[in-house]
Task: inverse folding
């Protein structure tokens, strides 16, 4: 099986309300306020941040546009952007899952909406080439999930057919897009849940040690 991993929220921590609570304690009083501010800041990954993900604008421009739209001071917006690399902490349970899948003989790839500077950071900081044969970062190819183009590009680049791929992502809209193109899918909620589902599908023979209870 060709198993394709999303990154943010799957292999790497990505929880914008908590990120904003850490960076902007003066603005985030509780979880509900963190959710509201995250929705306003990232615009559901459309708007300026979506253009950043797609490689259409750089970090100074995304800061300028978010500040202009919201009225937040540009230096505060810049603090959030600068804190994103530290937010993307590796999730050990997913690493154990990857290792278990490799041991089972599956081919592993990745497909991530990620601005180019953050893609560079992840490649410098982690052995992605050891875990995955290949991968696609949206910021380098200038197309994003859930668009059809990025899934088609991934299949061409990986040299695989859609129906031979199992896609793990934490966003239902991306899962739905992949399903519409004939990919098999698994909505990722945790490494333990994904491990259980993969075992149920016969793709993983035993739970990786790190995600056992």
Result:
């Amino acid at each position: 099986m060709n198993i394709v991993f999303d990154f943010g929220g799957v292999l790497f921590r990505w929880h914008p309300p908590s990120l904003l609570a850490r960076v902007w304690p003066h603005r985030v009083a509780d979880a509900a306020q963190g959710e509201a501010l995250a929705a306003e800041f990232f615009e559901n990954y459309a708007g300026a941040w979506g253009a950043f993900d797609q490689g259409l604008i750089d970090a100074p421009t995304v800061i300028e546009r978010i500040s202009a739209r919201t009225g937040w001071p540009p230096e505060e917006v810049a603090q959030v952007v600068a804190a994103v690399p530290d937010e993307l902490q590796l999730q050990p349970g997913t690493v154990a899952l990857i290792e278990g899948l490799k041991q089972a003989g599956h081919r592993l790839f990745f497909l991530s909406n990620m601005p180019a500077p953050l893609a560079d950071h992840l490649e410098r900081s982690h052995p992605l080439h050891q875990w995955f044969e290949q991968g696609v970062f949206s910021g380098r190819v200038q197309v994003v999930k859930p668009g059809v183009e990025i899934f088609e590009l991934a299949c061409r680049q990986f040299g695989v057919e859609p129906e031979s791929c199992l896609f793990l992502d934490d966003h239902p809209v991306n899962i739905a897009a992949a399903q519409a193109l004939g990919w098999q899918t698994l909505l990722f909620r945790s490494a333990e849940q994904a491990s259980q589902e993969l075992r149920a599908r016969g793709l993983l023979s035993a739970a990786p040690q790190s995600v056992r209870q």
